Each structure stands twice: as structure tokens, then as C-alpha cells.
Automatic annotation (TrEMBL), chain A:
Keywords: ATP-binding, Cell membrane, Ion transport, Magnesium, Membrane, Metal-binding, Nucleotide-binding, Phosphoprotein, Translocase, Transmembrane, Transmembrane helix, Transport. Belongs to the cation transport ATPase (P-type) (TC 3.A.3) family. Type IB subfamily. The chain crosses the membrane at residues 116-136, 148-169, 181-203, 209-227, 364-383, 389-414, 686-702. It is found in: Cell membrane. This is Heavy metal translocating P-type ATPase. Signal peptide: none annotated. It is a multi-pass membrane protein. Residues 33-97 form the HMA domain.
From TrEMBL, chain B:
The lineage of its organism: Bacteria, Pseudomonadati, Pseudomonadota, Alphaproteobacteria, Rhodobacterales. It comes from the Bacteria. Residues 34-53 are annotated as: Disordered. The gene is ccoS. This is Cbb3-type cytochrome oxidase assembly protein CcoS. Keywords: Membrane, Transmembrane, Transmembrane helix. Pfam families: FixS.
Amino acid sequence: MADLTASGFSACPACDAAPLAQRLADRADHADGTLILSLPTAHCATCITDVETALAAHPGVRGARVNLTLRRVTVDAPGLSADDLIPVLAGVGYEAHELDPDALSATTADRQGRDLLMRIGVSGFAMMNIMILSVAVWSGAEAATRDLFHWISGAIALPTVFFAGQPFFRSAWSAIRVGRLGMDVPISLALVLASAISVYETMQSGHHAYFDGVTMLCFFLLIGRYLDHRTRAIARSAAAELTALEVPRATLLADGAEQVVPIASLRPGDLIRVRPGARIPADGEIVEGRSEIDRALLTGETLPVLAAPGQMLSAGEVNLTGPLTLRVTAAGRDSSLARLTALVEAAEAARGRYTSLAERVAKAYSPSVHVMALCSFAGWIWATGDLRLAINIAAAVLIVTCPCALGLAVPAVATAASGRLFRRGLLIKDGTALERLAEVDTVVFDKTGTLTWGRPVLVSPDPLAPDLRPVARALAEASAHPLSRALADALADYPAADLSDVTEHPGFGVSGRWQGRAVRLGRADWLGVADDDKDLPTSATWLAVEGHEPVRLDFTDELRPGAEDCVAMLRKAGLRVVLISGDRPAAVADLAARLGIDDFHAGVDPRGKEAMVADLAARGARVLMVGDGLNDTAALARAHASISPASALDAARVASDMVLTGSDLAPVADAVATARRATRRIRQNFAISITYNIVAVPLAVAGMVTPLIAALAMSLSSITVTLNALRLRDGKE
Amino acid sequence: MEILSILIPISLGLGAAGLVAFIWALRSRQFEDPKGDAERILSDKWDDRPRPD
């Protein structure tokens, strides 16, 4: 998680809100007319033309440029706001969201990536030109010609090493200052020592100079660095984009007037208004209004809960039917969101820091390389007493052991694997996530919002007589309640009946008059029929028409696409699948039966979820947690690896290692398989580079390595490792 | 061997020209959107005349 905090995320949604609010306030001041919109659906040449033409035709737009790699459009339109342009794009069929340019400035410019590319270009130029001269030396250039070639090589190599080697020197220096030996210390030592010895040899008109090896080293190692950087940058910018989509604002009631303010500025005692369909911004007590509350993201319950004056609500719940006025009781750090944060932090601390394979290899590698170079130096001094020869051999040992292949082993595989998963709709946020995912043997799913959409669908319109269906549709259209919306969607093929006096009764239902008869759609107890849906896996609403028996309409929670395949594939791969939900036992049991999961737990609170994941871990299981709600965040942070869908709350996405960008759940099973293959490739790559060292090191210690052998071995091992990693891209085993 | 005094500067000059071209491309942000540039070639929008900048 260290990476996440460093890149500006924290596990505390409330803490995130404060700087974001600050940015929102700042934005108005330096409006230079550049807007950035996210275009999640753009994918082809036509999309580029459509978007750019539509925007350019809009009055006030001076220019628009689509970046298809980042799926964004940058619009130069002084005086216009995103709200003016989003409908323009919707008009030509593209979904667009406003992005906060300040939050993204670091990723769009991507100075670090360009900087690395520049160093790669320079060292590539130097490597190739020196190699032309070196080939002449190897094939037998003698005396003055050889010296001239060495001098020219040196004149190219020294500035190159000085410029291109800076990332290694800097990181080696910071490692030494804190008393550690990273991979970069032997690299820097090899670069400096080999350059120095080559200059000395050239001055003495010696036979061997390592200028080609030194620049080649820079070139290959920088490629590894760049791949590593790019994987991180893509993940980070996409994660930043997800965050930039949620703009936290609240409607404050001050002296009877409504005023939109950042959530961070709310104080206990403030009166806030929450419209139907909006998320509740802070903990509070209802002072006015009746409604129903969707608590799915907090508790996993699918059924809405009735809300009336005097009741306490928590931040993160969604108001469904009627407008509510709340008196804020706790905001920011004191809110229930922040209390949950404490749980998440404790869970993260309990998981501990994961040491990646590369770090473990580096730990063993650096000391042994130094010891070997030192031993061969001492050995040759003792045997021959020739200082120049001994230093030459020590430098050769450092160069051949230099971790070109080791430096490429992990980034090349990570780039191939994360590219593959990104194309299938899974974003990797954490560097060690792939390795941890590969070790997983148990998968814990949340129900509402993860395996299911968390929104109801009508089981069947059959209980409704055909002549009542238009009535049901007309009543359903009058309300924003999820059950009403689902009913209206299901009956979209029928015309809406002509009703009069349609009124919504928040928390109960909708009433109206149809052909002189009273019609009502709503809760069982409001219509005066016996409520027996407690034991059924479905939720229900009732339609009552004067002169008819009330009709019960059942709704079920629809499965996410790919959920069945995903569970089946995970079980086939030999993983244990567990379902833990905060919802009612009947609903959980029904879903578990549909998916063939026999290990399920219902009615579990957030603390319970985390405890169950911790308990599984204590019994030796490596748990992958897949969840979306606030009630899952602690469990997500506690698990060995974690995935959340893009529809999840910000807090859940921040706590998890991977984010599903699409709606399909199938990439989860694919991710486990890809991660296992990627880890196997990384191990193979380590084996390749270690084998190469086992062959090359004795030769170097024995003083038999010439610059030609070093160059050959170095490029061969690097290319083998890269090709091995690329095999991951197209899914063949 | 005198030919070397001509050939070596030429080979270095060609290499340097390549490096300068690369630096120019990088500075003018031609590596920012590789996917978009690959698709833009298919668009017939600026086929008749160049894009006015």
C-alpha cells in the first residue's frame, strides 16, 4: 500500500475530500479555458472524427484534440464549462465525464516517462555507434587505429553514461544514505568502475575497453525502468480518473436558502437537503421528510429501509423517494465513514507489507555481486601482484553480473500481463498485486453490487392481468424508487394508462385514479395486505386496483454478467469460493444455490467480514476478496489480494489492489490464471538470468571475459527474457 | 586507412541526425497518443488539404 499513499491516495475518504474540495474552489480562479473530458467509449478512428467535429462545430470552442490512448479529449474553449459540452457529445452518442485538470496534470504531462524515453534514445544512439567501432576492434584493428576507435568510443560513452545513468546513480545514492544495498548500487558501481578503467586502458593503449558494454548496460536497464514506469503510470492515471469522477458536494440550507458547498465544509448542526437519488453526504438526523433509504453499499442489504423524522442516517446511504432535510451530527473525521477508515487502517496493518519476488532476489543478489568482485580482485592481486589486471577483472565481473536480465525479468512480464488484463477490463493498481493474486487459494465474494448488480428486476409480469399492465406502468413511472423503475422497465412494451391525481407517498408508494377507480402501487402494509416476504429470497411490491385482489409483484436481484462463468472457472481452477454478505439469509441462500456456492454466510456486519477474512488467513488460506461496498473495505484491505468493480464506492476502490473497469465479472477468474502464469514467467526469467550468471561469472573471475563476450552475453540474456515475457500477451501456454 | 577520417564522421553524423530526430519527436509530443495516431491515419478528414494549424 506504500505506493498508493505515495501517489496521492489514502484509505480515508473523508481526508481525500478536503484537498479535493480545495481544488474545486481553486478551479474557478485559474480557468484558462482548457477542459479535459473522459471518453470511456471512444475506441476507433470514427470516434476521433465524430468527437472532434462535434466539438469544433459548437460555438465558443477553439479546438479539440482526442487522445485515444488515455480515452480523453482536451478542449480549448474559454468561457465554456463541461456542462455545456457533455450534452454536445451525448448528442453524437458519446458518454463523457468531466475530469479535474489539476488532479490529472501530473499524469498528462508524464514528465518522468518522457525523461526516461530521452535517456533510452541517447543511450541507444551511443550503444549503436560505439558498437560499429567495437566490431572493428574485435575483428582485429591494431595499434593506432584501435586507440583512435577507443578514444572516439570514450568521447561518446562518457557523456552518455553521465546523462543516461542518472536514474541509477540517484537511486543508488539514496539507498546508500539509508544504509541499504539496492539493485542500483552494483549497477552504478559497474558503470563508474568500467568507464574509469576503460579510460585508463585507452590512455595506456590497452587491448580492451568496455565503452560498448557500459552504454549497452544503460540501454537495457533503462528499458526495464521505462516499462516499469509505464505500467505504474497507466494504472495510476486510470485510478486518478475514477477518483476525479466523484465530486463531493452537499446542499446546505442557510437562512432558508439552498447553497451548494463542499462536503468538507459541513459542521455538526448544519441543516442539509438531500434530494431523491442523492447520496447522503454526512451523518445526520432527519428533521423533515419521509423517504426510503438504500443501504446496500454500507450493509449489503438489498431491500430499502423506511426513513422518517427522528431517524439517524449514515453518510454513504442513498435517499430514494422523498426529499429529506437532515441536521448534521457528524461530518468529516467524526463521521461513520471515518470510523470505518480506522478499521481499514487496522486491517492493512494486520496484513503487513508484502515482499515481492524481485526484492527478495535483489536482497541476495547485491551483496553476493560485491563479494564476488572483491574476491576476484583480491585473488588476482595475491596471485600476480598486478593491480591493473586485478582491477580489470573486477570490472569485468561487475559488468557480466550486472542485472540486465534481472532488471527486465519483472517489468517485462508485468507490462505484458497488466496490458493483457487491462484490455479485458481489469486495472492493476499495486505493483505486487499480480504476485499476491497468483498465490490465492480462496476467493471471498460479496453479494450485492459484486455478484449481482444491486438493482432489482421483475421476475415475471405474469401475475398482472394484461389490462392492468398499462396501469402498473403509469404508476411506476411516477416514482424514482428502484422497484418502480424496474417495473416501468419491464413493462416498457405496454402503453402507459391515463391516470389522474397521481401522488407519490414517500416511503409507502404511489396512488392515483384510473377510470374512476382508486389504484395504488406500494408496500404491503400500506395496502393492508399480509406481509409475508420476510422468508422469500425476493423483494416485492403490490398493486391494488379497486374491485380487484391486490397483486403481488416479485423482484429479484439480477446477476452481473459473467458471474456464473467466473465462479465456475474459479472452482475448476481448484479455488475455494466463499460468499459473505450483509443481506438477509433467504436472499443469500438463493443466490448461493444459483451459483453453486455451498459455503455462504448471511447477515455479516463489516467487522464480521474482516474477522472472517482474518480467520481464513490465520488458518493458512490466501484470500482474494472481491467486494464493492463500504462494508467490504476492511475485508478488502485485510485480504491477501483484493478486487472491486468500478461501480464501487471510492473507499472500496482505494482499499483494493485491482479495479474491474467493465461490468463483466469474468476477468476475475482470468486474472487469477494470468497472475499465476505471470509469476511462473517471472520465475523462469530469474532462472534464465541466474543460469547465464552461473556460466559467465566463472569465466569473468578466471579473467577470460573479453568485451565481446560481455556484450554478447548481456544482449542475449536480455532478449531471451523479454521474448519469454511477451509470450504472455496472446494467452498461449 | 585515410578513408576512416571521412567515414567515421559520416557514420557519427548519421547517428546524430537520428538522435536529433528522436529528440524532436519526443519534444513535440509525438509519443503521447500512439493508439490515436495509429487510428487517425484511417480518417479521411484531412485527405484533401492539410489541417490548418
